Amino acid sequence: MTHSLRALAALFLAGSAALSPALAATGTAPAGMAGAPTATAILARIQLAQATGQPTAPPADPQGAAARSDAVRRASPTPVASRQPTGAFPTNEISRQPSIDLGAGEDALRKDIGALQQTLTELQQLQLQTKQAHWNVSGTLYYPLHLLLQEHYEGLSKYADTIAERLLAVGASADGRANTIVRTSGVPEIPGGFLDDAQILAWFTQAYKRVGEEVNRGIKVTEDIDPTTSNLLQEVEHGIAKYQWQMRAHLQRTGTDPNAGRDLNDGKPVELPGTEPGQAAPDRGTPGQAAPKP
Known about the structure:
Belongs to the Dps family. By secondary structure, this protein is an all-alpha fold. About 55% of the residues lie in helices and about 0% in strands. The chain has 9 helices and 2 strands.
């Protein structure tokens, strides 16, 4: 292994010398490449790693990473501005064009728009979080969760588009801006970095539950003033409830298996509110028969 590393480093040095004799001779980077390690430096790191048993990568530099991100953001001198004010978050501008009158008054229209806008915001937040988890899921259930989260992302995208178009149909603008999501969503940010499968199951079980309950409130608010909106929200709630079930089913306790998630969670049970961690589900009788009375 040591000989292979040295051979690789020697080959790298030879290539560097062919491309830039000055680089190979001096061991210094040319102007404009101050941040790039030289071939000599890479060889030195490999030799040091062989001697000490330490990894060859340089130590992490969070501040340097932040500075590089800032540099990328400032890379383009092109200004992005508009003569139109940014407005509040959310902004739901009412159209002056003729639209179908709900016949319930201005107050009712505001409630209708509010229910639609909040649903749109939560759907967009879930879109972002499902994609983040889809990319970073790790562990035993990596592949099935990777596929399931993509399916959820696509479904949430369709629901969000339907709700946004309903806002336009009732005569209001839809607000899907990032700041609106950040400032008004009730769903917290999912943790950054790699996400283990048990963590994803627990997080989305609760996130979908919260959004489903919010949409349910919207259904009740709009059922008398705008039955069409109420029906659309029922479709959304139906989908969210399905997604929530698909997450919690992985941890569903049964009479024969507690399904506590220990195999996914480093030997510890995955805790969900409303269940006793590590405990089997209560006896609900033989399948197909009525449950025993308490």
